Amino acid sequence: MAIFARLKQILLGDPLNPFSPNILRHVSLIAFMAWIGLGADGLSSSCYGPEEAYIALGALNTHLALYIAIAMAVTVFIISLGYNQVIELFPSGGGGYKVASQLLGSYFGLISGAALIVDYTLTITVSIASGMDAVFSMLPHWTFEYKLLVESLTILFLLGINLRGMKESIKFLLPIFVGFFIVHVLLIVYGIAAQSKGLLPLIPDTLQETKQLASTMGWFPLLALMLHAYSLGSGTYTGLEAVSNNVNRLTEPRVKTGKWTMFYMALSLSFTAGGFILLYLLWQAKPMAGQTLNAVVFHSILGDSPFGKVALVITLALEAGLLFVAANTGFLGGPSVLANMAVDGWVPSRFRHLSTRLVIQNGVIVFGIFALAILLLSRGRVSWLVILYSINVFITFSLSLLGLCVYWAKQRSKASPNWAFRLSFSFFAFVITSSILCVTLTTKFRSGGWVTVLITCAVIACCLLIKKHYRALTKKLNDLDAELKQPIAVNNLSPLPIDSQLPTAVILIGKSSGIGMHTLLCVLRMFPRHFKNFIFLSAGIVDVGSFTGQAALMQMQHEVNDMLRYFVDYCHQYGIASQALAAYGTDTVEELSKLSEEVGKKFPNCIFFASKLIFENENWITRFLHNETAIALQRQLHLQGKELVILPMRI
């Protein structure tokens, strides 16, 4: 065990104290770091989104790409401004999931959350697969048989560095992101400047060719062609929602930091996406087998000189590297979505817990496993993965913007300033994103879009079953709390002195007062007048709900102390010596184990008691939905030579 603990410390780092006054500053992100960690997904999409749109226009209609470039840049800012409103309204994070849940209803929130789960999983998979395609295209052909293995190991590597912490993973990948951005900005500026003679007549030539094409094929088919190409480039906008999902991880003031991060993301993405399309037009790039359109146009810009060849390799390597940074966004944003859904009971509650490094560890591991499974299922085929990838994000976009429309419409009755403008803007953005969703779903459904719809529906179905279980359990526990709630005669309380040498019952208390009272009454009934002391232990757990600031942490501590005071006062009013102890941390079993060891030394004649919920049709699923704290703690206490009696409680 000591060796395992040491290895864990080496791999993950020293534990962090969630109650340290400076801990939030240590783990939170400034706008620049958030742009790198959360904006890489959006920026990396400029490597393939504009190319998809440009190629969809066909070799004879490339002049229409100018409209696509403008539309892409404008759309990026429209969606970003929409998510600025989300950041304002939900500064505690949650993004599209919370918007849909609180403004449209819980089931709309479920759809949005399920779409984000699938989207973030595909973010990891498609980014790794696409990045490795770029890397292996520069290697000998015989190495291709190892590509899938290297992709799998890369996912496991990213999983490992994210278990150390969000900030740590971003710092590790920072040079790649910065290198990509600087090199590509320079190439775009130089590429446009080198073709400046062709830039000035580009607009009038485009307008003239558009009129000629419209007279040949008609305006409606022309608009349909442009809309089709525009929708196929929808992958460009993925990742813009990541900031709103993780506002709670930003430095104070969070809203201001979030808005600056969105501005950096929108500016960088619109510049690179629009810039790439301009380069395709000005340098008349044509698709070539085995090469991306970016590789073709950069080769034209850099030439065949030794310097140009080296610069091209570095540029393509940085593109591949950025895709790996983008894959990391899935590990940053995905677990936050799971955690927020766990708070509402859609997924197992263990996904809201934090590790000793204050990371949503269970969520990171699950996303790593899911991404690995989809990678192996698809055999790393990027063309198939991209089809799955670009649908779900627009489900979330559309629901978020629809929620904002509902919100601002309701503000009308409250005479809220600027409600009309914000309502109009939100509705306009909703029309854009929902239109892209419909076109994308229609055009890509048969070619693989049905798979992502099927996977998303499967996630929704699982969430509904989990919610049904938790809802039924919550109702029964609330009924139990009400049934076993005992009145406390505050005026008659007279604490008795505790003799540590006398028989002592140590009772573990959780969040339910009914379960705690059930345990206490069972002990009193089973061992009448045997125990002279009653010690109550409880662990306050720092999870995504309480780790949002000092006020939330104090509230959690207050609730734990109130629960323990209730049981101590109950014992005192019947003349029973009692005491309560609490510990706070990120792991229930670990904190209770430490408390139990402390109590065991002070009270040598003690026996520990805890209740365990027993379900009529218990299986591995019900065990996964609950933490099995009593059984895990029993093993820890047995190793200490202590006795823990588990009292069954049938539900």
Summarize the structure.
With 651 residues, this protein is mostly helical.
Question: Which tags fit this structure?
Answer:
mainly alpha; 651 residues; Rossmann fold; Amino acid/polyamine transporter I; 24 helices; five-stranded parallel sheet
Category by helix and strand content: mainly alpha
Instruction: Name the average pLDDT.
Output: 87
Multimer state? single chain
- Looking at this structure, what is the CATH superfamily of the largest domain? Amino acid/polyamine transporter I
Which strand-content bin applies to the residues? 5-15%
Task: Give the spatial strand order of the biggest sheet.
Answer: 3-2-1-4-5
The gross shape turns out to be: elongated
| Helix residue percentage | 55-70%
The helix tally amounts to 24
Instruction: Note poorly predicted spans.
Output: none
Strand count, sense and barrel status of the largest sheet are: 5 strands, parallel
Output the helix-strand order: HHHHHHHHHHHHHHHHHHHEHEHEHEHHE
Distance between the termini: 35 Å
* CATH architecture classification of the largest domain: Up-down Bundle
| CATH fold topology of the largest domain | Amino acid/polyamine transporter I
Tally of separate domains: 2
- Just give the CATH class of the largest domain: Mainly Alpha
Radius of gyration: 29 Å
Structure description:
The chain is mainly alpha-helical. It folds into two domains: 2-469, Amino acid/polyamine transporter I (Up-down Bundle); 490-650, 3-Layer(aba) Sandwich (Rossmann fold). It contains 24 helices and five strands. A five-stranded parallel β-sheet has the order 3-2-1-4-5, sandwiched between helices. It starts with a helix and ends with a strand.
